[in-house]
UniProtKB/TrEMBL annotation:
Residues 41-422 form the Aminotransferase class V domain. Its EC number is 2.8.1.7. It comes from Modestobacter roseus. Gene3D superfamilies: Aspartate Aminotransferase, domain 1, Type I PLP-dependent aspartate aminotransferase-like (Major domain). This is cysteine desulfurase. Its cofactor is pyridoxal 5'-phosphate. One of its GO terms (biological process) is cysteine metabolic process. NCBIfam families: sufS. Keywords: Pyridoxal phosphate, Transferase.
Length: 445
């Protein structure tokens, strides 16, 4: 893009807390080009994040030097693999302020949520009385919100279908926030569990969890917090969060794909039957019946994704070196800048909170006269990689009456130049489709 566009008055480049150039040098993929030599402007970390060299090195080192199945076998490699696997658990646990025994490794957030949902329905028929405490059945209610990712909606719909429980939900306000006006009605004595996202993947909204968790506990319900979009982007400490479960995915926080986390309060985890059964989660196995290990092993059946867990440990170390407070402040500055610029473009509508109050760095928008997929196509041609579609949160786009949105998400390597590239590309899309306003901000047309 050769045209120089002046930036709107509200778009100020305050100094960014993170050293973007130094961080970019840690990510091998960011040095490649796309679309005939263009700089890669990666604004899709909300879907999956790129990986720093230290994460790639940790996985490679495991396979090259220590590869064995952890928690099985007594040989040296097995001992080393077990040590590295458990050391990663300790790092992840410390990252969220939890004891190690409360951290269960899964494949991703989706599996973590399914684990809880299946454990709650398995509880109803568990032969062990101690596993029936949280059983969900007919007459019970599960509460979600209208802004949940499908991963935090469908497992609960399915749980209700399996058990005869009823699904209820909190709606949304026009400006992209949770409508809590009927919280005390929706969350009531019949509620068994409330599942809510901490940060919306599509709207960017950061939810006020304190009141929701307090109400849920008041009526004796469990609370599962979907941290897939919050744990990578802000400090999250389970001791202050106050929930019963927290789920997140390694691949969205600089770690590998194939590893996720279920954190659960020990007392609750300990009262749940397993979801998957098999090797390494058992105490005694007989042909007639078997008994299970305590958490977290009870929920980690089979040889685990060891290299990925170790890679996640390296990702956590990387984020801790940067400091999660700085990561949050970095994204807040970028979000403020991006919102000011995008909202200054006539025809662009931000779907979600229009300001930076309780809002993270996921910005969804529509461009009048251009389908979001076409916006994405033009952006991609210019090297700007964003996500388009319903973002696995179909009820949200339906709620706001749009077929889909274009979504930009930021992370530690994102700089103002990335946001400028996005904004310039949106203007270019308007020109390409002949919907550019006659006079735009700063005089560019
Ligand atoms: N929850 C939220 C808010 C998400 O954004 C996502 C993924 O985008 C998920 C859950 C599911 O994550 P995963 O696909 O890693 O299981």
């Amino acid at each position: 893009m050769t045209e120089t566009v002046s930036r709107p008055a509200g778009a100020q480049q305050v100094p960014l807390p993170l050293d973007v150039e130094a961080i970019r040098a840690d990510f091998p993929i960011l040095s490649r080009t796309v679309r005939d030599g263009r700089r890669l402007v990666y604004l899709d970390s909300g879907a999956t994040s790129q990986k720093p060299r230290s994460v790639l090195d940790a996985e490679r080192d495991f396979y090259e030097n220590h590869n064995a199945a952890p928690h099985r076998g007594a040989h040296q490699l097995a001992e080393e693999a077990t040590g590295l696997y458990e050391a990663a658990r300790a790092k992840v646990a410390a990252f969220i302020g939890a004891p190690e025994r409360e951290v269960v490794f899964t494949r991703n957030s989706t599996e973590s949520i399914n684990l809880v949902a299946y454990a709650l329905s398995n509880a109803a028929t568990a032969k062990e009385p101690e596993f029936r405490r949280y059983a969900v059945g007919q007459g019970d209610e599960i509460v979600v919100t209208e802004m949940e990712h499908h991963a935090n909606l469908l497992p609960w719909q399915q749980l209700c279908e399996r058990t005869g429980a009823t699904l209820r939900w909190l709606g949304l306000t026009d400006d992209g926030r949770l409508d809590l006006s009927d919280l005390d009605t929706v969350v009531n004595e019949r509620t068994k569990l409330v599942a809510v996202t901490q940060q919306s993947n599509i709207l960017g909204t950061i939810n006020p969890l304190g009141g929701i968790i307090a109400r849920a506990h008041e009526v004796g319900a469990l609370v599962l917090v979907d941290g897939a979009q919050s744990v990578p982007h802000q400090p999250v400490d389970v001791t202050t969060l106050g929930a019963d479960f927290l789920v997140f995915s390694g691949h969205k926080m600089l770690g590998p794909t194939g590893v996720g986390v279920l954190w659960g309060r020990y007392e609750v985890l300990d009262a749940l039957p397993p979801f998957l059964t098999g090797g390494s989660m058992i105490e005694v196995v007989r042909m007639e019946a078997s008994t299970f290990m305590p958490p977290p092993q009870r929920f980690e059946a089979g040889v685990p994704m060891t290299a990925q867990v170790i890679g996640l440990g390296a990702a956590v170390e990387y984020l801790e070196r940067l400091g999660m407070d700085k990561v949050l402040a970095h994204e807040e500055a970028l979000t403020e800048y991006a919102l000011a610029q995008l909202q200054a473009i006539p025809g662009v509508t931000v779907i979600g909170p229009p300001d930076t109050v309780a809002r993270g760095g996921a910005i969804s928008f529509t461009v009048e006269g251009i389908h979001p997929h076409d916006v994405g196509q033009v952006l991609d041609d210019l090297g700007v990689e964003v996500r388009v579609g319903h973002h696995c949160a179909w009820p949200v786009v339906r709620r706001y009456g749009v077929p889909a949105t274009t979504r930009a998400t930021f992370y530690v390597h994102t700089g103002y130049d990335d946001v400028d590239a996005l904004v310039d590309a949106v203007r270019e899309a308007q020109r390409f489709f002949g919907v550019a306003p006659a006079v735009t901000e700063g005089g560019a047309s």
